[in-house]
Design goal:
By secondary structure, the protein is mainly alpha-helical. The protein has 38 helices and 11 strands. The radius of gyration is 29 Å and the shape is globular. The two termini are 51 Å apart. Residues 1-37, 277-281 and 313-319 have low confidence and may be disordered. Pfam families: PC_rep (PF01851), RPN1_C (PF18051), RPN1_RPN2_N (PF17781). Keywords: Proteasome, Repeat, Ubl conjugation. Residues 755-808 form the 26S proteasome non-ATPase regulatory subunit RPN1 C-terminal domain. One of its GO terms (biological process) is protein catabolic process.
Length: 812
């Protein structure tokens, strides 16, 4: 290709030769080719070709006015080529002459900083592979940024193709962290391996491991990826997420929030007028249960609190057990499990402290302890599998609450691991005729979590048979709805792979057929931004149904799950949900607040906050409860003062209604999640990657919230602990090459979208400079404010390893 030549001459011989070369090329090269090719070309194409040569000569003219005209004409030409290509495709004519022109135009665009136009043209003529030859060190970053950003708006399978090209380009220029992110986005483990094998720098490999750990997938390193045993063990530890607890506590000490908080510190009842605080002193079981959850959410991961871990002064069976017994029956299960939440990610001391509950005579306490073990191990992988060892013997016990505790614990501890042992342990329960419905429902969910997004056929079959075995009366039960969800989680984000299972679901009893269909579709297209699916769900919501039809709930959640992929989709979905509120039936209105909660999770947008605030006073209590819980979800871990104020007012407004008050308390706990250091957002890496386990946990909770009264306000309130799957520290922690914390100045501000902009635009706006570790809110981006260190990952989030910049000189 002619104009690609100058680059090669330019890079070796300095500036002067480059200019001469580029001036000569168009006049020489095409002429040589012309003599051979002119006979093949039609008159029209000859004209096009001469026109192109004229443009190329003009662009290299020293007169800037001429250059500009040539660039403009080049754009027109590209448009004409795209049309001509489409025409010839339909006529099946030959396109070789066109492709030669395309090659010249692309080379020209890439040299003149018009990467997006080159990419667009190649997309039109379906030949993106050409791009790899034309990118160079100067423009590959901008090219790939444009490719990855446009992928969200392309129909499949084009989007995957575009990302494939971006991956190839990043690998070519050894921009490994970005390549790794694309590999994770494509869910392509071969690519992930390739990144590890292509990179020889042990520090960079450590950084990859931090990225994998944050994404929450199970990944085993082998000899090829890292030859030395000790080094490989160290890397595997990072992937297993062993470091997260220590980093989180370092952040907490740095921000000085280690002091444990009690539920009263969160409720701030003294700020309210007299009437509500008077009723607060009554020790009701429901209020204590709410306090248990608030305490667990607020002190999550800190290892100490004022209810469960208090060292007893008088005797060994002191105050920690006494709080446990302030809860009634199944409340004790949540109370015991809350200890696991407080010791989140700290496996050793967590298991040691939960041990005392295993000797209890109370079934509910043991069930809670089993669940607690699952919570402590959530997101942490351990060589010696303590969770499996402790929980597996309890899975087949008689008592159903103990079985649920063990099953849900296994689901949380091994989410996303696709562990065979767990499958062989749990699948038989689904076919067990003696098992109660709730045990079967939680088994389906746990299997869905362990095999999330794996499309595993054996698990799918087991859940399908379990659904077919249900009797008429059981199909009406709220918990039965968790079975289709367990099935859906197997296909989370896997698009077409769900179709065979969806066909099978059409043979189910008509009571659950549509419900199953909606749930499967919403899970399969979650996080894809597929517009056609959103339209499909909106169409389902437009129907006015008889009472007792439930499938519109998952359809409303489906709108949010599919549209949450990118900002534009989120805005549009919020508007569509507003319409559903005005025109939808009651069962749709109950799901809308939950969908809003998912769209803006841990990201309190003002318009959504106002809508939820309005709905929290709705005449229908189910709508009000959903709205209150969603207020907690959109403010989760942000300490947002406005939401906190709203919830305080709601607590005095609903002080006589125990159920609504319970929801208000839960929301208050969520807003202060981890004292404001945690987030529930499933997206990370500048909103590019979606963690499947995190989304699975959120979706499970939201499906349970579709019937608040039966599940969360009934005896299954521990489904709230599914949120632990999505909890992540919202921090930037910089560490040195020995992984010790290293404090450096960083600028934190609102991220700016710079795709396709000319020059080197600023990527953040309205920034403040802090020294690390720092907290990142939704939509924030950080950049180093010092030249002294070089970050090993281009995205500053979570753990980032810094190495000293060899070219740095301190100015004296």
């Amino acid at each position: 290709m002619a104009p690609a030549d100058p680059n090669s001459t330019g890079s070796t011989g300095g500036g002067a030769t480059r200019d001469q070369a580029s001036v000569k090329v168009p006049s020489k090269d095409p002429k040589k080719k012309d003599e051979k090719k002119d006979e093949d070309l039609s008159e029209e194409d000859l004209a096009l070709k001469q026109q192109l040569e004229l443009y190329v000569e003009r662009v290299q003219d020293s007169d800037p006015g001429l250059q500009k005209t040539a660039l403009e004409s080049m754009r027109n030409l590209a448009g004409e080529i795209a049309q001509e290509y489409a025409k010839r495709q339909t006529e099946e004519a030959i396109i070789d002459d066109l492709m030669e022109l395309v090659g010249q135009i692309v080379a020209f665009h890439m040299k003149h900083n018009a990467e997006p136009e080159a990419v667009d043209l190649l997309m039109e003529v379906e030949d993106l592979d050409l791009l790899v030859e034309h990118v160079d060190n100067a423009n590959y970053k901008r090219t790939c940024l444009y490719l990855t950003s446009s992928a969200k708006y392309l129909p499949g399978p084009d989007d995957m193709l575009v990302l494939d090209i971006a991956y190839t380009i990043y690998m070519k220029f050894e921009e490994f962290p970005r390549a790794l992110q694309i590999a994770l986005y494509l869910d392509n483990m071969q690519y992930v391996k390739q990144v590890f094998t292509s990179c020889n720098d042990p520090q960079k490999k450590r950084q990859f491991c931090f990225i994998l750990a944050r994404h929450g997938i199970t990944f085993e390193l082998d000899e090829d990826m890292c030859s030395e045993d000790d080094e490989r063990e160290g890397l595997q530890e990072i992937i297993n997420n062993i470091k997260v607890n220590e980093g989180y506590l370092t952040l907490a000490r740095d921000i000085e929030v280690m002091e444990p908080k009690s539920p009263e510190d969160i409720y701030k009842a003294h700020l309210l007028d007299g009437r509500a605080s008077g009723g607060g002193s009554v020790d009701s079981a429901r209020q204590n249960l709410a306090a248990t959850f608030v305490n667990a959410f607020v002190n999550a991961g800190f290892g100490q609190d004022k209810l469960m871990t208090v060292p007893s002064e008088a005797s060994s069976s002191g105050s920690s057990t006494s709080w446990l017994f302030k809860n009634k029956e199944h409340g004790k299960a949540s109370a015991a499990a809350s200890l696991g939440m407080i010791l989140l990610w700290d496996v050793d001391s967590g298991l040691a402290q939960l041990d005392k509950y295993f000797h209890s005579t109370d079934m509910h306490v043991i069930a809670g302890a089993l669940l607690g073990v699952g919570i402590v191990n959530c997101g942490i992988k351990n060589e010696c599998d303590p969770a499996l060892a402790l929980l597996s013997e309890y899975v087949d016990k008689e008592d159903s609450s103990i079985r649920i505790g063990a099953i849900m614990g296994l689901g949380l501890a091994y989410a996303g691991s696709q562990d065979e042992q767990i499958r062989s342990k749990l699948t038989p329960i689904l076919g067990d005729a003696k098992a109660s419905l709730d045990v079967i429902a939680f088994t389906a969910i746990s299997l869905g979590l362990v095999y999330v997004g794996s499309c595993n056929e054996d698990v799918a079959q087991a859940i399908i048979f379990a659904l077919m075995d249900r009797s008429e009366s059981e199909l009406g039960e709220p918990l039965t709805r968790l079975l289709p969800l367990g099935l859906g989680l197997l296909y989370l984000g896997k698009q077409e792979s769900v179709e065979a299972t969806a066909e099978v679901s059409k043979t189910f009893d008509e009571k659950i057929r549509k419900y199953c269909d909606m749930t499967l579709l919403s899970c399969a297209y979650a996080g894809t931004g597929n517009v056609l699916k959103v339209q499909h769900f909106l169409g389902q919501c437009a129907q006015h149904l008889e009472k007792g039809e439930t499938y519109q709930g998952p359809a409303v959640l489906g709108i949010a799950m599919v549209a949450m992929a990118e900002e534009l989709g989120v805005e549009m979905a919020i508007r569509s949900l507003e319409h559903l509120l005005q025109y939808g039936e009651q069962n749709i209105r109950r799901a809308v607040p939950l969908a809003l909660g998912l769209l803006c999770i841990s990201n309190p947008k003002v318009n959504v906050m106002d809508t939820l605030s309005r709905l929290s006073h709705d005449a229908d209590t189910e709508v009000a409860m959903a709205a209150i819980v969603s207020l907690g979800l959109i403010g989760a871990g942000t300490n947002n003062a406005r939401i906190a104020g709203m919830l305080r007012n709601l607590s005095s407004y609903y002080y006589k209604d125990a159920s609504l008050l319970f929801c208000v308390r839960i929301a208050q706990g969520l807003v202060h999640l981890g004292k404001g250091l945690l987030t529930l957002a499933p997206y990370h890496s500048e909103r590019f990657l979606l963690s499947p386990t995190a989304l699975a946990g959120l979706v499970t909770l939201l499906h349970a919230c579709l019937d608040m009264k039966a599940i969360i306000l009934g005896k299954y309130h521990y489904v709230l602990y599914f949120l632990v799957l999505a909890m992540q520290p919202r921090m930037l922690m910089t560490v040195d090459e020995n992984l010790k914390p290293l404090s450096v100045p960083v600028r934190v501000g609102q991220a700016v979208d710079v795709v396709g902009q000319a020059g080197r635009p600023k990527t953040i706006t309205g920034f403040q400079t802090h020294s690390t570790p720092v907290l990142l809110s939704a939509g924030d981006r950080a950049e180093l404010a010092t030249e002294k260190y070089v970050p090993l990952s281009p995205i500053l989030e979570g753990f980032v390893i810094l190495k000293e910049n060899p070219e740095y000189r301190e100015d004296h």
